[in-house]
Amino acid sequence: MALHSTNPTPPDRRPPRWADRLLKRVLPADLLEELLGDLHEQFAEQAAELGEAKARRLYALEVLRFCRPYFLKRRIRHQQRTQSDYSQPYFLSPIMIRNYIKVASRNLAKNKVYSFINVFGLALGMACSLLIGLWVKDAFSYNRFLPDAEKIAFVRVNFVDPNTGEVPVTNWVTPGPLQEAIAQDVPEVAAVTKINYGPEYLIKVGDKAAKEKGHYATDDFFGVFDLPAVYGNPKAALKQTNQIVITRKVAETFFPNGLALGKTLQLNNDKFYVVGAVIENLPSNSSLQFDWLVNWKVQEENWMKTWGNNSFQTFVRLKPHVTLAQAEAAMKDIYPRRAGKNFDTGRPTLQAITDLHLYGEYENGKPAGGRIEYVRVFAIVALFILLIACINFMNLATARSATRAREVGVRKVVGALRTSLIGQFLSESLLTSLLAAALALVLVLSVLPTFNTLFNKQLTLDFNQSDFWLLLGGLVLITGFFSGSYPALFLSSLQPIKILKGRLQFGAGPALFRRMLVVFQFSMSIFLIVGMLAVGRQMNYLRTKHLGLDRENVLYWPIEGINEPTKFNALRQEILRQPSIASVTTAGSLPVNVQGSSGDLSWPGMDPNQSSSVWAMFVGSDFTRTMNIKLADGRDFRADSPADSSNYIINEATARMMAQSAPAMKDPVGKEVTFWMGKGRIVGVMKDFHLHSLHEPIKPLILCFNGLNVEYLLVKTRPGQTQQALADLTNISKKFTPDYPFNYHFLDEEYEKLYRSEQQVNTLVNYFGILAILISCLGLFGLAAFTAEQRTKEIGVRKVLGASVTNIVGLLSKDFLLLVLIALVLAVPLAWWALSQWLGTFAYHEELSWWLFGLAGLLAVLVAFLTVSYQSIKAALMNPVKSLRAE
Questions:
Q1: What is the mean pLDDT of residues 720-742?
Q2: Which NCBIfam families does the record cross-reference, listed alphabetically (predicted)?
Q3: pLDDT tens string 849-858
Q4: What are the Cα distances from residue 200, in Å, to 176, 210, 249, 618?
C-alpha cells in the first residue's frame, strides 16, 4: 500500500523533477497524491536494485504512460466542478468583471445625484485637461516637422561686457557678414543661410493681385531647411536672381490650372520673376511663415555688409555627429577675428530650432523663459482642475461609506475576498471615469472651435491616431484608479462582524481625510481666483499705462508703389490737406514695437569697453509731434532741412549711456557721434518712451532721418473723425497707389498684439478658475446634502427643542466655512509667491495688494456659503415630525 506522501524518497535519491511537474499538470487532483506516492516508492526500490540512473529512466517511462488525453480531460472536468462548487473565482476573471460592471451600473443608477456630481465634475476636469493637452502638444510640436530638425539651429549673438563678463544684450537679429563668416570659418556647419525680416509685397499676375509675405534669402536656404517640393528644384531656383520660389497656396491663387512652373509674376510692382519651383505650404506649427523666396543678391546693399548693422536672421544646419556646443565653441572667435575692435564683444550662440518657439527670452546669454512659462502654467492649471474633480469623487465615496458598509459586510460573510471588493469599488470608479471621458469628448468637440478662435489655433481631435486613444485611455485609468483607490481600500478593510452587529465606528480618520481634501480643493480654487484678479489687474495696467507716446487715433499704412521723392511729397501734402487728419510722418518700424535694426554708437570720450548698442529707427519729419513724444532738448527733424539726413535724435536712455563715460555728453545736443550710417550731429533728445513691451526696460534708441525709404506712413486723425479720415485716405490711396490695396491698421491694435500671450493666460485663468470653483462647489454640494441627510434626526430634535432655521443653517454651514478659511490661509502664500514670479517677468507692473487676497477669500467663502446654505435651509425647513418618525 502506498504511503500518502509526495516525497517518500531519500533526499540523495530523487526521481527527475521534470517528470513530477509533468505529472502534476496532467493528472486530476484526486489521483495525483496517491499515484505520485506509489511511483516514488517504486523508484526507491528500483534505485536500490538497479542503480539510480536506470531507475530514473524507468520512472520517466512510467510517467509518460500516464500522459494520455483521458487523464487530461478528467483533470479539466474536475477543476471546473470544484471551482463552481467550492473555490473563489479569480477577481479579474470574465465572470467577476461582468459582475463588477453590473453592480457598478446599478449603484450609479440608484444614486443619481451623487453620480451626476461625480460624472459631470470629472468630465469638466477631463475636458480642461484634453484642451490644454492639445495646446501644450501644439506648443512642443513647433518646427519638429522639419527633416533632421535636431540639427538645425537659430543663431543669436551675445554681447559680452568685457569688465564683468556678463551678457547684458542677446540679439536675435544678426549682421549680414556673420553668415559668410560662419560658412568659411566653421567646418562643423554643413549649411548656413540668412533671411531678411520678411516684408509683405504685392504679387501680380495679369489682373490678379494679392499681398504675400516672403523673404530674400541666401542660396543655401534649402540646404538648411529641407522643405518638400511640389514642382521644380527649389535649391537650383533660389540660386538664380531672376527666379522665385513660391508655396502651393500662391501657385493655386495665381495659377489655378496647376501650371505655375516657368510662369512669370511681378513682385512689389517692380521686378518680374520666373517661377522656378513650388514648395508645400508651411504648417501652422512653423516659426518661419512665408509664401515666396527670392535670391538675397537682388536686394543686397552696401550697408548690409557691415558688422554694426544687426537686421537679419541667421540659421545653420550642423554636420552629423556635431553637437550645438561643439559648433558654438567653433564660432566664439568670429567677432574678434573678423568684426574689428568696435564689435569684438559679440559671441554667436546657437539655439535649437525646436526650442525657438518656447524659449524666446534670454538672460545673461542663456535661455530664461518665454512661451514655455505659459505652457507650464496651463499644465499646472489642468492638473489642478483634474485633481479637484478627483477629490470630489473620493470625498463623496468616503462620506457615503456608512451606506455601503452593510453591503460590504454581507459580501464578506458569503465569502467575498478583499481583492474582489477592491475590484468592485475600482470598477465603479473606472465606469464613472469612462462615462466622464465620453462626456468630456462631447464638451471638447463643442468648445474646440471657440477655443481655436480665442487662441488663433487650428487644434483638432485626431481620432485616427493611436496616440490619442492611448492618451485618453491612460487618462481614464489614472483618473479612475486615483479617484477610487482610497474608497476601495477603506471600504474593503471594514470588519463584517462589527458591520452586521451595528457596532461599526468609523472614527476620526476618514472624516479628517475628507476635510483635508476639501481644504486642498479650495486652496487650489482660491489660488486660481487670486490669479484671475491679479492677471486681470496687470492686463488693465498694460492697456492703460502711458507709454511716453500717444498711440490713440494713430493708424499705420505700409508705403508701397511710391519710389520717387516728388510723388511721395505730393502724397504727404494731399494727406495733410484733409481736415480729418491732424499730422503725418513716416517710420521704418512701429514705435510701440521697434524691430529689425540695431547697431553700435560711438562718441567722443567713450570708454572702449563700454556697451554702446542702440536700437535704430528711420523716421521722417514731424515724428515726435505726430506721436506726441516730448522733447527734453533740441528739435524734431524738419522736411526743409537737407542737413538732417545725417543728423540724429536720441532718447534719454541713450544720453545717460553716453554720459556714463563722457561727462561732456550730458548735454548732447549739437555733439557729433558716429553710427553705422556715418558721422552726424545730435539735434534733439526726446523723453523716453516704451519701444518694446513692458516686459523690457526702456532701451537706448537713435532716430535716423529718412523720409522716403521707410516701411510705414503714420497718420494721426483728429478725435472723433476717424471714419471720415479712413474715407479720405481710401480715396487718396486709389489716386496715388491704385495697384495696391489700402491696407491700414491701428497702432493701439499693434500694441495689444505684444501681450497676446498674456491675454491668452488671462482668458484661460478666468475660464478655468470659474470651472475650478464650479467643480469644488459640486463636491461641496454633495457633501452638504449627505451631511444633512445623516443628521436628519438631530435636526428634527433641535427644531422640536426650539432651534430656528438660522441656528440650523449656521450649525450645518460652519464646519464647511471653517475649511474654506483654512484653505485661504494655505493658498495665500503660494499665490503670492507664484504671482510675484510672474509679475517679475515685467519690467513695469502693478504691485500685489492685500485686497486681492481678501477679495479672493471673500468670494470663495460667499460661494461656499451659498452652496452649503441651499442644503442647510432645505434640511432646516423639513417637518421635524416626519424626520423623527422616519428615524
A1: 89
A2: perm_prefix_2 (NF038404)
A3: 888 888 888 8
A4: 21, 10, 15, 19
β pairing state of 169-171 and 208-217: unpaired
Which is nearest to 827 in space by CA: 536, 538, 534, 519?
519
The DSSP string of 146-194 is: STTGGGEEEEEEEE--TTT----EEESSEETHHHHHHHHH-TTEEEEEE
- Tell which wins on pLDDT, 713 or 468: 713
**What are the respective helix, strand and coil percentages of the chain, to the nearest 5?**
55, 15, 30
The CA distance from 703 to 686, in Å, is: 10
pTM: 0.74
| pLDDT score of 109 more than 90 | no
CA 178, CA 339: separation in Å to the nearest integer?
A: 9
Place of cell 538648411: 224
The string over 827-863, giving b where at least 16 C-beta atoms fall within 10 Å of a residue's C-beta and e elsewhere, is bbeebbebbeebbebbebbbebeeebbeebbebbbeb
pLDDT surpassing 50 at residue 547: yes
Query: 367: Cβ–Cβ under 8 A, 6 or more apart, which residues?
Result: 351, 355, 359, 361
- Using CA atoms, how far apart are residues 299 and 213, in angstroms rounded to an integer? 16
- Pairwise pLDDT comparison (402 vs 830), residue with the higher score: 830
State the average pLDDT over residues 381-405. Answer: 76
- Among 432, 436, 443, 434, smallest CA distance to 394 is for 432
Query: Cβ(237)–Cβ(282) under 8 Å?
Result: no
Across 876-883, average pLDDT: 65
Using CA atoms, how far apart are residues 159 and 366, in angstroms rounded to an integer?
A: 12
More confident residue, 498 or 376: 376
Nearest to 135 by CA among 639, 650, 714, 764: 764
Q: Are 620 and 586 in contact (CB under 8 A)?
A: yes
- Grid coordinates in use for 134? 492639445
**What is the tens place of the pLDDT at every residue in 185-229?**
999 999 999 998 777 888 999 888 888 999 999 999 999 999 999
Q: Which of 616, 623, 581 is nearest to 595 (CA)?
A: 616
DSSP annotation of 304 reads G
Kindly state the DSSP code that residue 551 receives in the 8-state scheme.
-
Residue 522 has φ and ψ, to the nearest 5°, of: -75, -25
> Using CA atoms, how far apart are residues 624 and 622, in angstroms rounded to an integer?
6
- Compute the C-alpha angle 503/505/507, nearest 5°: 165
Average pLDDT over residues 429-447: 89
Task: Please choose, from the candidates 614, 612, 610, 621, the residue with its C-alpha nearest in 3D space to the C-alpha of residue 594.
Answer: 614
d(CA 410, CA 240) in angstroms, rounded, equals 87
Q: List strand residue ranges (DSSP E) for 58-173, in order.
A: 152-159, 169-171
> What confidence score (pLDDT) does residue 146 get?
93
Number of residues written out for the chain? 887
CB 872 within 8 A of CB 786: no
Short-list 887, 886, 875, CA closest to 795: 875
Tell the residue number behind the cell numbers 520517466, with chain if given. 60
Which three-class secondary structure state does DSSP give residue 289? coil
**Which of 223, 254, 261 lies closest to 239 in space, CA to CA?**
223
Alpha carbon dihedral 835, 840, 845, 846, in 10-degree steps, equals 40
Check the CA dihedral 327-333-337-341 and report its sign: positive
Give φ, ψ of 768 to 5 degrees.
-75, -25
CB 724 within 8 A of CB 623: no
621, exposed or middle or buried, with CB in 10 Å at 0-12, 13-18, 19+? buried
In the structure grid, which three cell numbers stand for residue 501, read together? Answer: 452587529
User: Got the DSSP string for 401-431?
Assistant: HHHHHHHHHHHHHTT--HHHHHHHHHHHHHH
